[in-house]
Amino acid sequence: MADFEDITGWREELRDHFEEFGQEGIDYLYRNSIEIIEQEVSISQVQDYADLLMKHKETRDALLVFAEWQKVKLAHPGGIVEPGDPAYKDRPKEIIYLLADFYEWYCMKTDFPCLKNRVSRWGKKLAIGVLQGEIASTRSKEFADQYKETVEFDASFSEKHR
After folding, report:
1. Residue 1 CB burial class (10 angstroms; 0-12, 13-18, ≥19)
2. DSSP class of residue 76?
3. Residue 54 contacts residue 135 (beta carbons within 8 Å)
4. Contacts of 120 (CB under 8 A, 6+ apart)
5. N or C: which end of the chain has fewer CB within 10 A?
6. How buried is residue 108: exposed, middle or buried, by Cβ count under 10 Å (0-12/13-18/19+)?
């Protein structure tokens, strides 16, 4: 298991990884196969990722900015802010990149495929909910029930559309 106690230098570690392994390293992080697509993502992995995001000031602060951007997006049709929209110029690009890079680093450290972005998506959602007081904790039954319901829906949707 990767050590996430002190994440100082995570950006440099990710950069060094990509410099050392080049396209092969990127391809491996974003590897894809039917086995990966069908691989179940445990709720504990989502919870651990949410805890990691909240544990460190840089990512915790980024989540709060990201949450505000999510509110702006949700106020738009389809949850999408198009390039011509006045709100588009205010999107927090650096925060979006930071969280994406952090997830790549997390995947590199855990040998988890980046394409299984349920960990990133649900981990951010869970962490934001906790930080904003909407969810009691990352281990709350409320979140576990919501996650289980969504995972079951995703699985049944996949079965129907094979």
Report:
1. exposed
2. S
3. no
4. 49, 99, 103
5. C
6. buried
Give the pTM.
0.86
d(CA 81, CA 89): 10
Which tokens sit at 93? Answer: 């690009």
Q: Which helix (H) or strand (E) holds 152?
A: helix 141-160
Extract the tokens encoding 48: 């651990």
Per-residue pLDDT of the chain (162 residues; tens, 9 = 90+): 577 888 999 999 999 999 999 999 999 988 887 777 777 788 899 999 999 999 999 999 999 999 999 999 999 988 899 999 999 999 999 999 999 999 999 999 998 888 778 899 999 999 999 999 999 999 999 899 888 887 764 544 344 434
